[in-house]
Amino acid sequence: xxxxxxxxxxxxxxxxxxxxxxxxxxxxxxxxxxxxxxxxxxxxxxxxxxxxxxxxxxxxxxxxxxxxxxxxxxxxxxxxxxxxxxxxxxxxxxxxxxxxxxxxxxxxxxxxxxxxxxxxxxxxxxxxxxxxxxxxxxxxxxxxxxxxxxxxxxxxxxxxxxxxxxxxxxxxxxxxxxxxxxxxxxxxxxxxxxxxxxxxxxxxxxxxxxxxxxxxxxxxxxxxxxxxxxxxxxxxxxxxxxxxxxxxxxxxxxxxxxxxxxxxxxxxxxxxxxxxxxxxxxxxxxxxxxxxxxxxxxxxxxxxxxxxxxxxxxxxxxxxxxxxxxxxxxxxxxxxxxxxxxxxxxxxxxxxxxxxxxxxxxxxxxxxxx
Length: 370
Prior knowledge:
Elements (H helix, E strand, L loop, with lengths): L7 H8 L23 H11 L20 E2 L17 H30 L2 H20 L5 E2 L2 H6 L1 H15 L6 H24 L9 H17 L2 H15 L9 H4 L5 H20 L8 H18 L2 H7 L16 H8 L3 H7 L6 E2 L4 E2 H4 L1
Parallel strand pairs: 1-2
Antiparallel strand pairs: 3-4
Helix pairs in contact: 2-3, 3-4, 3-6, 4-6, 4-7, 6-8, 7-8, 8-9, 8-11, 9-11, 11-12, 11-14
């Protein structure tokens, strides 16, 4: 495996003491939170599960969506929440409202990209071309380039990743025009490089290393592999190796374990992105899953055991975990990518009866992709 080459700032961040005095913001990603604290979460989850349900119908191209250039919002959490696990209902609703147009657009793109992969002949090509026609105006407008708050900067990268996955899906079916390719890929690369700079130079100490960086790395890696930019791919590889080396012997990610009654939720959130990013890299770097003595597998096992036996995490955090008895289907979508490169009969059995393993931030139906 290639030696890890962390940025100076990342190394310094690793040396910083972790205490509640350090600001920590985090997104409760729509469609990800098992607590279901808002209507937006429920609707996005439902949309993701529908992302491929109509992949075979003859509906027209998705409606155009006005580009969202600027995002500006504060924290979802109450000011006195040291673990960043206590939501302010009004603030949470405001963040969901700000992100809703972006998330709806990504769900629409994902649906078109899955149609492209499942429809035959000209119908599949038409779906891919539809995606390019709807995405190009966002690229031309330099969408999501004005991220004026810290919270906007740390929550946008997972959206870039979702867009990049959808675009990559379409490329497998039909090529965009030269003009479309230039503007779309140029925009994606610019957003990826801005993400790298923010997480290396400006993000708060925890956010620069926790689940938010894992989702940022996944998006940056997907963009780099699509455009052939090795700098982006290497940043993703560094993040995977660095994160793997933070995994404790039992499989816990220590920064996520600081999140009180949402510790397991955020452990799962981190593992989803970590596993998919490793899978993206594994084609050219098959030893990536061996980083730090197989730490990614330990993290996966610890996470899934947490749903079966939450008492262990509750003993560590001192808080009852806000989780469903089993993960939502879209929370398990990452397992398809993971199992392509890892032998895990128990996980295979766990997802065998799940018909729809789809997540719009991962490109939709994972069985179509992996």
